[in-house]
Design goal:
- This protein is α/β, with parallel strands linked by helices.
- It folds into three domains: 185 residues, NAD(P)-binding Rossmann-like Domain (Rossmann fold); 86 residues, N-(1-d-carboxylethyl)-l-norvaline Dehydrogenase, domain 2 (Orthogonal Bundle), CATH 1.10.1040; 89 residues, Transcription Regulator spoIIAA (2-Layer Sandwich).
- It has 19 helices and 14 strands.
- It has an eight-stranded mixed β-sheet with strand order 3-2-1-4-5-6-7-8. It has a six-stranded mixed β-sheet with strand order 9-10-11-12-13-14, with helices on both faces.
- β6 and β7 form a beta hairpin.
- α8 runs antiparallel to α15.
- The chain is elongated.
- The two termini are 41 Å apart.
Amino acid sequence: MDLSSKSVLVVGAGIMGAGIAQVAAQSMRFAGQQVFLHDAREGVAEQAKAKLASTLQGLVSKGKLTTQACESALARIVPVSSLDEVARSGLGLVVEAIVENLEVKRTLFQDLENLVSEDCVLATNTSSISVTAIANGLKHPERLVGMHFFNPVPLMKLVEVVSGLHTGGAVAQGIFELSQVWGKVPVHAKSTPGFIVNRIARPFYAETLALLQEQAASPALLDACLKAVGFRMGPCELMDLIGHDTNFAVTNSVYEANFYDKRYVPSLLQRELVDAGMLGRKTGRGFYRYPEGVPALPPVQFEPVASCAAAPTVADDRHSGVVVKGVHIVPTDGRTTGELARDLETTAVVVHDRMMGASLTGSGATGRAPAVAFATAAGLSAEQRAVAVAHLLSQGVEPHEVVDTPGLVVARTVAMLINEAADAVHQAVCTPADADAAMKLGVNYPAGPFEWLRAWSAQSVVVLLDRLDAHYRGERYRVSPWLRAQA
């Protein structure tokens, strides 16, 4: 099914709809193609085109777009006040980008079905509503497909092509190929709660919220630890940017849609922020105050140990860490320092977070070494703590102490991202390759979950998750059957 030579109607001229219209118009390669832009609010489509003209002319002034390309793209976008105006214009595709409300979307598509030809493809840009549910009631539900763009549409490469229960294979493939013509990277997904990105990303927020509720560390430290391994923004910083009302609503939606599966349970702490009106950047305060933003971490505090740099470092066959001057310095495997101290029969135990490779790439924009969380066993002396801090500093990282929690920060977060992606593959929502592409392109993760898995090992991830599960005694950390099979 070739959709690249047919006219497109975009319904909804908000930020997403206008962005979709821009991408479609700039990518059109055949003479005579048009992008019709409609919004139920009077004058909004015209305003969206005017704003787009200003944006494109700005690109021309910067030398990023030719005057001819700008004028051609704008000429292809035609605001329309009524859907009847384009009903007989040979439309090949309608892309809906209106309010996230099932009944409103369903009514729109039922109305459109009476206006367009039977071979016109109907696409929804929904980020969370079931494509199957939207298609319910259509005469031809097989032609409805999800075409989920990410904001800002002109810059973000990912498009989730979401197939509902009735979506025709040719329709999904046609949208997949059109997305490529429009310069995007499409991935196939099955219509399940959250699709790929919004589903797999839940632990990135949830683990940090859980650690904050346990008072394990400050928001700034949790953010710093995750940025140290390549995430562009920490979870707290990102939730403040998204808005806690929006993030909390999406979490609730995924939780409800999964029949209240404990893996997706919302956070009481985040609900408190929403109830207090502390929604993040848009209200001036969330985890941080704005415009100040994320505060700098305090400097590392420890008493230097004489000749520590030359201290003998030896391996121990009871763990994957090292022993320096009698102190066991161990990367987390899901055991707390208390559990390790019991197993090793010594209190000279320090557990540090997984560095995931990216930690050691440099000091970043702050000029400081990457932050790494560590915890100490009860009974560890100040001198023994100093030995561990000095050793970690010698590895090119900046160690910051947190409360003794299983899996610390990075390890438990990445393990849960891997686990969620594994379940998505287990349930045929997507392939491992599409999961990796979606998370890197849709939310700018430094690696895909299956790339992390290959670098870490399925057995180690399963062991860590099983220990988290045993510690918290709930359903949240249950291991995906797919992941356990790999181990």
